[in-house]
């Protein structure tokens, strides 16, 4: 019995994961000794793909960093308010000392409005200034040594944690491509082994397994065919809507030298910036294509150099599982529903 070919890269991410999981389940249930030898790598690849489909939404060190940042802000504010209270103290020497320290704090503005890096640098520079010998006597007089120590420790702890978080880089799990490719490679090895067993040691068990696998493939082909059909139907519907919109305006272009003007089926841009490609057929049969847009309910022709630049799309690569040649595929990138069948626009 022949193992069916299947373009697995056309499946979206979650569909791809479930297809591989279903194949693994069918093979485990069949429990064929020589086939079981290639199932463990597939199981590991599926597990890694599953993890990549559900990456953490934040780094585990983020709460620690936030707490250190809150601590240093609180320490800085406690110093600020203590110094401010001394500026209205009855002791003239304390008022004078407080004003000098407050002048240093004013150099760095409002720390609450700074980003992490600027806040770290501002606190470091403030501590450097405050440690000058000419200022130390004022610090002792104002009794803020412990608050300054608290600020320095919190700022150092924040800076260290910020660098440690770079080592974890939780966003690396978002790249599903290598995991899909590894799963595809393992699936190819499994289907190759299934075909080889059936060719060399045919049995009712392997025949049943291949039959179930082929039914699964057929089911997924129906899904992809239906998705393509729905995409074609949506494209046709949009084309009809555009033709209805442009019909009265194109009729106005018909005159002695123009026999007819029709929508050519291509658009660029969105909303009010949408441009339409129009085919103009002259009375002598000559044809030319012009881009135009609708302005104040009239068609305005637009030179090609003034058209909005379309976004470049990567061409999907369609690979198949070949029983004869296991090879890694180039999967589609994106989220749970990404895949080569993601666009049904058809240029409309």
TrEMBL record:
Compositional bias of kind Low complexity: 323-335
Entry superkingdom: Bacteria
Name under which the protein is recorded: Uncharacterized protein
Chain residue ranges for the region called Disordered: 308-348
